[in-house]
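User: structure tokens for this one?
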Amino acid sequence: MKAGNDNDNIIEIDSKFSLGAHVEKWSIAQIKKEPMFWQSSLDFVLQHKAPIHKNFIENLKFSASKYGVIPEDIIIDSRIHMFVGKNIYPAIPGWHHDDVPRGLNGQPDYLAMPYKANHALALYGDPVCQTEFATGSLQLQIPDSGVVYEQWHPQIERLVRGGYLKSHICDMHRIYLFDAFTWHQAVPSTGPGWRFFIRASWGFDGHRKPMNEIRNNAQVYMPYPNQGW
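Assistant:
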């Protein structure tokens, strides 16, 4: 990502991802028993009986070998969802980026970025709700006010559906490596089933600390209202 003219707040975003290792498949019964974590360190996760997390971490270390080693500031987030039918979202709908630092107004600040996060995710369970990526380069005007992703979502949606940005639906049981400028969104469920999502993030340069919390709930979202992140 690079900024254009400071007066018009136009930025250029290069959205991309790379494929990592395949991860082990687990039964729905095993997924139901797995704990969920929020903003947790590797040490905290590994202290708990969480075999799916441990398998993901092992495969992540292999997949992220281009980084040399897994950085010390890695943070793990995970969620388990049970879908009872169609058109249920496991996250707030809409195209967005993960972990772009927020400004004083609470919105992502692309012009002042003290760190650039990297991420890896994997999906387990039934293939009923698979994250969508959009890859390619484009320039965007940063909104002067309002919810940034709410305003950008329809623009990205048009570019994806028009073929200017390329859509990729994540395979199950595969690690995807991406960064803070990779467009992605949750998609609505296509039917009943179970979904286990895990994401590792790093590169915070001391700006984000582990909270080491076990997550006790994982909410779902309906398509309306869609107010953006």
